[in-house]
Amino acid sequence: MVVATKEQVSCDLGDEAAILGMKNSVYYGLNPVGAAIWRLLQQPRSVSELRDAVANEYDVSAEQAEDDIFDLVQRLMSEGLVELAGEPR
To answer: Is 49 exposed, middle or buried, given 0-12, 13-18 or 19+ CB atoms closer than 10 A?
Structure first.
């Protein structure tokens, strides 16, 4: 399970998103697909939930969606914007 941290603020910019990392004061921009994933990450989600949402919304295989989501989540984690979350209650 992955979720956006409390150490950031974000907003939608059309179909894109802007994120400010509060720890490092750096702004990040996400394209429409990244922004859709970011919106989902406001609540704890599994990678499989994210993969299914992306594969259903965009013309991409589940395998490619999962690979791209792993890359995005790893980058967001390295910047302190998302963290691992426990299972929902």
So the answer is: middle
Q: Which residue has the tokens 């295989």?
A: 61
The model's pTM:
0.90
What is the third-level CATH fold of 2-84?
A: Outer Surface Protein A; domain 3 (3.90.930)
Instruction: Count Cβ atoms below 10 Å from residue 18 Cβ, excluding itself.
Output: 15
Q: Answer whether 85's CB lies under 8 Å from 3's CB.
A: yes
> Domain-by-domain residue ranges, the chain?
2-84
Quick: pLDDT tens for 34-77.
Answer: 999 999 999 999 999 999 999 999 999 999 999 999 999 999 99
